[in-house]
Amino acid sequence: MNNSVGFMENGMSNPIAVIQKEINQTFKQIENKKEVNFPSENPIASAYNTLIESEIKQLESYKEINQHLTSSFSRQNNYIGNIKETLDGIREILLRAANGVHFTEDRRVFGQELAGEIDQIMSSLNAQDEEGNYLFAGTKSHIPAVKEVNGSYSDNGNQQHKEVSVDKNRRMRTNVNITSAFSTNNDTRLDLLDRLKKLSDDMKQDKPLADYQDHINALLKPTENAINSIIEANSELAIRIKALVSLDEDQQTKIELHKNLSQQLVGMTEDKEYIYINRLFELHSIQEKYSKILSKKYEFNIWQTIR
């Protein structure tokens, strides 16, 4: 865990405030024209500034990764939302088609509408990012997530997850699994889409309702299950996005603090600087203990659940 920023509660002192107080004291010494040395003349300050600059670069690298990941999650969220709306439409078509009062022409229209909804789902499942990677193909992001051959649909990617480092000792999955929502047998065959396609063809071909009435009724439950799976995937993405936003803010705060510390090291006397740096390390150690305690609940609710 990076120790640059901590949070103190219940009236406990904030170590950062203590650090800032010592910085202010150093400023007063400089204003009183006491002899000072610059980092280039002081190996202690120079070494510590090098460490600070390295930390800033690492934090900025994480922020860039996280911003890209947040953008990807938002794009996935939009397509998953489209799939959910499409499945809601399919459920409505099934409920209307199950009503025996409709004429053959009505059922033909239902079949056409259902075919359009299936095409829309296929389009969303095979969505790509701005770099041309398929969002829902697992680790096989270079190929379409789903393929259709002679009216039969199957998972063309896999159910595996990619991971990236989003901070020190923290990794996050970059994708969610949604193609499995359309498989009732837990295999690569997306049989829910197959069955919906067959129903669509039957209705468009003006077959008697009796030929597929049972088929309609049997599709209602798996369609509802698919909707629930999609909602769950969307909720998972929302949790990840929220976690990344919080992490980005925390990393930005750390960057600003590091830059401030680096600036304040310039102009300190060597003796005062030695005392200051030792105190700073001591404060970091105290801060780490507090941060671990205060972040325990957050780690459990956010980081553990998204894995």
SSE topology:
Blueprint: H1 15-31, H2 43-97, H3 104-125, E1 146-149, E2 152-155, E3 163-167, E4 170-173, H4 191-204, H5 213-265, H6 270-306
Antiparallel strand pairs: 1-2, 3-4
Summarize the structure.
It is found in: Bacterial flagellum; Secreted. The protein is mainly alpha-helical and 307 residues long.
Walk me through the structure.
- One of its GO terms (molecular function) is structural molecule activity.
- Keywords: Bacterial flagellum, Cell projection, Cilium, Flagellum, Secreted.
- It is found in: Bacterial flagellum; Secreted.
- This is Flagellar hook-associated protein.
- With 307 residues, the protein is mainly alpha-helical.
- A hairpin with a 2-residue loop joins strand 1 and strand 2 (152-155).
- The protein starts with 14 loop residues before the first helix and ends with a helix.
- It folds into two domains: 15-61 and 246-306, no CATH class; 82-236, f41 fragment of flagellin, N-terminal domain (Up-down Bundle), CATH 1.20.1330.10.
- It is rod-shaped.
- 64% of the residues lie in helices and 6% in strands.
- The strands form two sheets. The chain has a two-stranded antiparallel sheet. A two-stranded antiparallel ribbon has the order 3-4.
- The longest helix has 55 residues, at 43-97.
- The chain is built from six helices and four strands, in the order αααββββααα.
Can you tag this structure with a few keywords?
two-stranded antiparallel ribbon; 2 domains; cilium; disordered N terminus; f41 fragment of flagellin, N-terminal domain; 307 residues; mainly alpha
